[in-house]
Amino acid sequence: MAKIIIKTPEQIDGIRKSSKLAGQALEYIAPFVKEGVSTEFLDEKIVEFIRDNGAIAATLGYGGYPKSCCISLNEVICHGIPSKNTILKNGDILNIDVTTILNGYYGDTSRMYTVGEVSPKAAELIEVTKHCLALGIDQVKPGNYFGNIGFVINRYAKSKGFSVVYEFCGHGVGVDFHEEPQVDHTSRRNTGPIMKPGMTFTIEPMINEGRAGAVIDKADKWTARTIDGKLSAQFEHTILITETGYEVLTDVIGEY
Known about the structure:
By secondary structure, the protein is an alpha+beta fold. Helix content is 26%, strand content 25%. The protein has helices at residues 9-29, 39-52, 120-138, 147-159; strands at 56-57, 70-73, 76-78, 93-102, 105-114, 163-164, 170-172, 179-183, 200-203, 206-208, 214-216, 224-226, 232-234, 237-241, 246-248. Strands 1, 2, 4 and 5 form a 4-stranded antiparallel beta sheet that branches. A 3-stranded antiparallel beta sheet has the order 3-12-11, with no helix packed on it. Strands 6-10-13 form a 3-stranded antiparallel beta sheet, with helices on one face. It is globular and about 45 Å long.
């Protein structure tokens, strides 16, 4: 099994800068998320912003993925491919997922956006998902088990009547796009690797309105949708374990 990389101070500095840029990209795109806009337009604006800041998008060409970010709309859980034919309409909810490579270092983050007036159930799903991420982040400290992240996320989501996607997970990130460890969002208490200072990874719970399963689009082999057509939401941050707790590297608005 591959080891979890303990980053050096130099690597942490590079990851911190790339993560900050990824977070800034999500803030930059917010005013453009509105009715009548295509998801391809949003992708192009993000590409322009990242390029203007001296970075590139990690997703473009990764495993054959054709775009520079993932935009997942309504029942799409993750890996939604931006398209000129996908036009935002009133009531839509969407996740935009951005991973930057700046000077060789990776920063990975995503958040939810709404278009116009969304349903009460959609608003509740988004709020619960955001709180799931916060609960997971609160588990990050030296000496804790990685499994406790997923344990608290799953317990809370279920208590609110939602389900947690188990087919996708968080992951180590920083010097590569996907590193060890795998960060599951449905875990048993006190399981998995032990957290140590210098580890960097994502927590990215995907919470479904209905059943937890996913189905992958047979045509594009990327788009993952809920199996019952109900809504899905996701929030993601890149986290650094410090000597005393954590630093949320992609948080550029001071939420954590």
